[in-house]
Automatic annotation (TrEMBL), chain B:
A Pfam short name: Fer4_17
Keyword Metal-binding annotated: yes
Protein name: 4Fe-4S ferredoxin
Organism the protein comes from: Chlorobaculum thiosulfatiphilum (Chlorobium limicola f.sp. thiosulfatophilum)
The 4Fe-4S ferredoxin-type domain, residue ranges: 156-177, 209-239
Gene Ontology terms, MF aspect: iron-sulfur cluster binding; metal ion binding
Length: 674, 276
């Protein structure tokens, strides 16, 4: 699909002609007209040299508005068009299409932004009008010097990379693969599944997390279009939309994936048994050779090199002796690298929970029975260390009273994070419910700031916790948790009663904040996407382009973008799949021809631009005479890679690089017209 | 044997062995305290070399003469530490090949004594303390501090006054080893970014463009300062830019020849979030 309708050759304005510019002043309803005297603007521009026709209209972006522009182009044989309206980000494409349909090269259009950069930010009508005239005039001077450009075609590699094998990544991979496209799914842990595999039941339906997740995990690994690379990390990303080159490090597992049957004998015999399990949040132990959990996909163990006796002392190898298959366990295994050609990347790297040790007053880390929500998930999970019984980590006894503290980190600019972690209100209600179901005499008290239960079936769910499962909600913050006579005394305030309260609890559960992965920022820099102050990845537009990043061809889903629950993560994952499949629906991709070019005659070959280019789009090129002798080496821009950012142009001291669509002559004319 | 004789015979030996095709050094000047460049192609010519405390020019600029190094042969050159820094920068900017430059290094100590510097290849000098800690003479620092102490308005007036003397002769550009562009931006007239007239705007445009083009690249040799026929203290501008670059990026131009251009390279740990 072409960006614009092809321009008939006979109507082409290529070659020198006197400038005949059409200027179209849009009122944008009241948006512009209330602050800019459009009549004066039209009058001023009508007299400007080279302006053939100047009109005003209420909405030029409307159908009749565009018709006016098209008719003016045809009737007056215009060589260029300036629409004085909103930001090019809003309607540049609209008017470029209109130009193309009327037979004018779409790059002979300029948008003079007299809305965002003028009417919206000024209150004095006279001054705003004067500024609007100057802005429009300078764009007329620019458009006189515009060149006809043709879009650049680049091939699309129709293979997707999904980074992160949690529920978001799995869903995106399945959707893309289901449409017949190849997917490489990279997960850095030994198994796919992500945080969802650690959860007990899921709100608001209370279905078992593993029961709904594991079928998807199995589907992913068995899918003929999906290559699952676990225990692997993305090392390098080069290239651009449709044509990424991705290098993946496959960490040494020390177990041969192709030979292992997953019998688990090695795990049984491993003598190092007391390693706190990451999957169990330290509530259970694992061995040095291990799979993180029973339903791991793939069900192939890895050896934790830092904990393994053989790697530490050079002696042991009991797992190898136990293994029935020859050469399946290989202590000499090294990390390997594989490179992939990729057309689109889905980032689904997930989240971590905030370290709660900043809340010394809550006693986390000091008292064993002060735990996080994720700990509680493991306690409540049938596959967990207590086989689903809620037991205190300190003495293994069943707690009678459990206090839940919501917003233990979230919505707390002083110690935690400013934002709402979104899922805690719901999982805390769920925890209270699960506790009530498993321990009929127990009671749970929940300290909260607000109950945020927006979502299908969510409010009903929290009401059920309160009304049927008798969770007691206390509106207020907790100031301190301390131990007294074997009880955890929770001191807080009930702001609805206006009284301080003290609860003697057997266990305290903190609803900790969701934070980005610790290496989120580093990783963003590695693959070239933006992130916010916390390290959550930035979408291109919060409302209108929520799953795209500012880097074309890279998409986002799941909690790496912002805290999200499972339904949202899955919905967003499917949205990224739709975007990827849209991109993959054609073999060629048309790109804006706004790219840099080097003037070879004056290039001094200092390679400053090579180093400055953020897209590695500049190469060295040899200039030879007719006898093949090297005359000199100059810089050369690869138009397929160039994103038209202009960094090289500003860096070049000899002024030897120019950017199509924003040439020095155009910019200079624009500036001088002000 | 004095240092002058020692270097004369070394230059002669380089030429007679055929290792280098040319040695660039100093010869007698028009007055007793001035030296002019001398280009020796034979061992006999090398006997005319002079080396004393008056040899202050940065001869690295002559290495860039069009076609001089295109035959791949080596050239010897007398260089002080600032000149060695220039060579390092030129190598890092791909204007020189390190194997083509044979350095006859010397230093002027206390403004009067000439001392030999060990080494002949640029790599021998790369990490020398003398290169890293090269500071301009005290009077330059003193003058710079005086300007730094001024208010913004006073400073603007000061430079307006100084730049008003500029006659756009471009001697600063011609003498500077870093001004190697075949076409300078000031010579671009389609469009004419830098106006060539000697009015306030034109004077600022030229001198500030040059200052920015030298930020993180100036070897602090002071050649521009000495070349200026109307005595604009150009060196102070470049000294100040160098100081900025050093404090912001811990970067000293010409410290070694593997440096990346400071204003065109990115690091993973750069604090700005817009760096992708």
């Amino acid at each position: 699909m072409a960006l614009f309708a092809p321009v008939p050759e006979t109507l082409s304005t290529q070659g020198f002609r006197m400038a005949k510019i059409g200027v179209f002043v849009c009122h944008c309803g009241e948006n512009i007209a209330s602050k800019v005297d459009t009549g004066n603007l039209v009058k001023a521009l009508s007299d400007h040299p080279g302006v053939e026709i100047c009109n005003e209209y209420k909405y030029f972006c409307s159908d009749p508005g565009q018709e006016t522009v098209k008719r003016a182009i045809r009737e007056n044989n215009l060589t260029g068009v300036v629409v004085a309206a909103c930001s090019p980000r809003m309607h540049e494409t609209t008017f470029r299409k209109a130009c193309a349909e009327a037979g004018l090269n779409p790059y002979m259009l300029e948008l003079a932004n007299i809305r965002e950069q003028c009417s919206w930010v000024h209150s004095d009508k006279d001054q705003a009008t004067e500024k609007a005239i100057e802005i429009t005039r300078s764009l007329v001077e620019k458009v006189k010097r515009n060149n006809e450009l043709k879009p650049i075609s680049v091939p699309v590699t129709r293979r997707a990379l999904v980074i992160g094998g949690g529920i978001a990544g799995i869903q995106a991979a399945l959707d893309i693969a289901g449409a017949g496209r190849e997917v490489i799914l990279v997960e850095r842990e030994p198994s796919i599944g992500g945080h969802m595999s650690q959860l007990s039941e899921t709100f608001p339906t209370l279905d078992c997390s593993q029961c709904i997740l594991t079928p998807r995990m199995v589907e992913a690994i068995q899918h003929p279009n999906i290559t699952v690379l676990t225990y692997s990390e993305v090392e390098e990303v080069d290239g651009y939309i449709g044509n990424f080159k991705v290098k993946v490090r496959k960490k040494a597992r020390y177990v041969d994936m192709s030979k292992c049957t997953g019998c688990g004998d090695c795990i049984q015999k491993c003598p190092v048994k007391k390693i706190p399990s990451e999957f169990e949040c330290g509530l259970g132990n694992r061995t040095a050779i291990y799979t993180p959990f029973a339903q791991a996909v793939p069900n192939v163990p890895v050896i934790d090199k830092n904990r393994c006796t053989y790697f530490k002392n050079g002696k042991c190898k009991i797992c190898q002796k136990t293994c029935q298959i020859e050469n399946c366990i290989d202590f000499e295994m090294q990390d390997t690298f594989e490179e992939f050609e990729i057309g689109a990347i889905v980032v689904a790297t997930g989240f971590q929970i905030q370290d709660t040790s900043v809340y010394g007053e809550y006693g986390y880390g000091k008292y064993k029975d002060v735990i996080t929500g994720l700990h509680f998930e493991r306690l409540a999970s049938a596959s967990g260390p207590t086989a689903g019984k809620i037991l205190r980590p300190s003495d293994g006894k069943e707690p009678e009273t459990v206090v839940f503290i919501q917003c233990a980190g979230s919505r707390d600019p002083s110690k935690g994070v400013k934002y709402c972690s979104k899922i805690c209100c719901m999982y805390t209600a769920k925890h209270a419910m699960l506790f009530a179901h498993k321990h009929h005499d127990g009671n749970s008290k929940i300290f909260y700031m607000d109950i945020r239960a927006a979502g299908k079936g969510y409010d009903e769910f929290t009401r059920r916790a309160i009304e049927e499962d008798e969770a007691e909600y206390l509106r207020g913050r907790v100031s301190k948790v301390f131990e007294e006579n074997g009880k955890l005394i929770v001191r807080g305030v009930d702001t609805l009663l206006g009284k301080p309260v003290e609860v003697a609890a057997d266990m305290v559960v903190l609803a900790t904040a969701i934070v980005p992965q610790p290496d989120a920022k580093e990783f963003a820099k590695k693959i070239g996407i933006g992130y916010d102050e916390y390290g959550f990845y930035n979408e291109a537009h919060l409302k209108l382009r929520p799953v795209e990043t500012a880097t074309a061809g890279i998409y986002l889903c799941g909690a790496c973008q912002s805290p999200k629950d499972i339904p949202d993560s899955v919905a967003q994952a499917s949205a990224t799949a739709a975007k990827v499949l849209g991109l993959f629906s054609r073999e060629q991709l048309e790109r804006e021809p706004v790219v840099a070019a080097v003037g070879e005659a004056t290039c001094a070959g200092c390679w400053g631009c090579v180093s400055a280019c953020p897209y590695n789009a500049i190469e060295q090129k040899e200039i030879r005479d007719r006898n093949g002798n090297l005359v000199k080496e100059v810089a050369s821009v690869n138009p397929g890679l160039c994103q038209g950012c202009g960094t090289c142009v500003t860096f070049c001291r000899s002024n030897s690089i120019d950017l199509a669509g924003f040439t020095e002559k155009q910019i200079f004319a624009e500036v001088m017209a002000l | 044997m004095g240092i002058q004789e020692q270097y004369r015979s070394e230059a002669a030996a380089l030429l007679s062995s055929g290792e280098v095709k040319l040695v660039i050094g100093f010869g007698a000047g028009s007055t007793a305290d001035r030296r002019r460049p001398l280009f020796a192609r034979t061992p006999e010519e090398a006997q005319k070399f002079v080396l004393d405390a008056a040899c202050i020019a940065n001869l690295s600029t002559y290495l860039l003469a069009e076609g001089l190094l295109s035959d791949g042969k080596k050239v010897g050159v007398f260089l002080k530490p600032d000149g060695i820094r220039s060579v390092n920068i030129l190598i890092s900017e791909a204007q020189l090949k390190p194997e083509q430059v044979v350095i006859l290094g010397y230093a002027i100590e206390n403004g009067k004594d000439v001392a030999a510097l060990e080494g002949r290849n640029i790599s021998d000098f790369s990490i020398g303390e003398k290169i890293r800690n090269l500071t301009p003479p005290p009077h330059v620092i003193e003058a710079a501090e005086k300007i730094e102490a001024m208010s913004a308005e006073e400073r603007f007036e000061y430079w307006k006054e100084e730049f008003s003397k500029c006659i756009k002769c471009y001697a600063c550009r011609q003498v500077c080893p870093m001004c190697y562009c075949r076409r300078c931006i000031v010579d671009v007239n389609q469009p004419q970014w830098v106006s060539t007239s000697s009015h306030t705007l034109g004077n600022f445009e030229w001198n500030l463009v040059r200052a920015f083009h030298l930020a993180g690249r100036c070897a602090s040799c002071g050649a521009c300062d000495r070349a200026c026929p109307v005595n604009i203290p150009l060196r102070l501008v470049n000294y100040r830019m160098g100081k900025e670059v050093r404090s912001a990026f811990d970067y000293v131009a010409g410290e070694n020849s593997d440096q990346k251009p400071v204003l065109a390279s990115f690091k993973q740990d750069d604090p700005e979030t817009f760096i992708l």
